[in-house]
């Protein structure tokens, strides 16, 4: 009996660990997609490039072959480009002062976050968390309070 209980207990721990690992992998992949979309959006608006030329190489760089992640990246890119000027007006209204030019990556990550909040059917708390976590990938952790405040004010 003790051996059976131990095996069941170990199996439940392993199963729980696998579920946690798969959830954290999903969050990392979603985070990468937000960062990639923000980077592409910045290149489109600052370097006058097109999404048609920038997106395919980024899709090839994705480490996962999961088509849903590729589709999510395309949704973020095309949607944020389509609604950019509306999202920019909303963001400018929420900001008390403009973001400096050297920190424009934060601005574009906020645009991606606003797009997700406004147009995608995802839980709001998850979008805010992923956007705030995305700041770590671009080495702008100082802006966590700013991004959290802007997105929560929008909600």
Mean pLDDT: 78
The value of Rg in angstroms is 19 Å
Total beta-strand segments: 0
Looking at the structure, what is the overall shape?
Answer: globular
Number of helices: 7
User: What is the beta-strand fraction?
Assistant: under 5%
The parts where pLDDT drops under 50 for at least 5 residues are: 1-31
Task: State the helical fraction.
Answer: over 70%
Structural class: mainly alpha
Element-level helix/strand string:
HHHHHHH
Largest sheet properties = none
> Span from first to last CA?
53 Å
Task: Give me a quick take on this structure.
This protein is mostly helical. Helices cover 80% and strands 0% of the residues.
Structure description:
- The protein has 155 residues and is mostly helical.
- The protein has 7 helices and no strands.
- The protein has helices spanning 2-46, 51-61, 67-82, 84-94, 104-119, 124-137, 144-154.
- α1 (2-46) packs antiparallel against α2, α3 (67-82) crosses α5 (104-119) and α5 packs parallel to α7 (144-154).
- The longest helix is centred in the N-terminal third of the chain and has 45 residues, at 2-46.
- The termini are far apart.
Write the layout of secondary structure elements.
Elements: H1 2-46, H2 51-61, H3 67-82, H4 84-94, H5 104-119, H6 124-137, H7 144-154
């Amino acid at each position: 009996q003790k051996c059976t209980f131990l095996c069941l207990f170990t199996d439940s721990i392993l199963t729980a660990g696998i579920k946690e690992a798969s959830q954290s992998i999903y969050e990392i992949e979603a985070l990468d997609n937000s960062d990639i979309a923000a980077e592409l959006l910045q290149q489109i608006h600052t370097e006058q490039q097109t999404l048609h030329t920038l997106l395919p190489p980024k899709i090839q760089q994705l480490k996962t072959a999961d088509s849903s992640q590729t589709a999510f990246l395309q949704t973020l890119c095309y949607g944020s480009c389509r609604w950019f000027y509306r999202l920019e007006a909303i963001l400018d209204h929420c900001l008390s002062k403009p973001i400096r030019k050297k920190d424009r990556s934060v601005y574009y990550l906020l645009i991606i976050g606003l797009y997700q909040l406004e147009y995608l059917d995802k839980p709001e708390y998850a979008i805010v968390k992923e956007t705030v976590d995305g700041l770590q990938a671009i080495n702008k952790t100082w802006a966590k309070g700013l991004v959290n405040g802007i997105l929560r004010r929008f909600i």
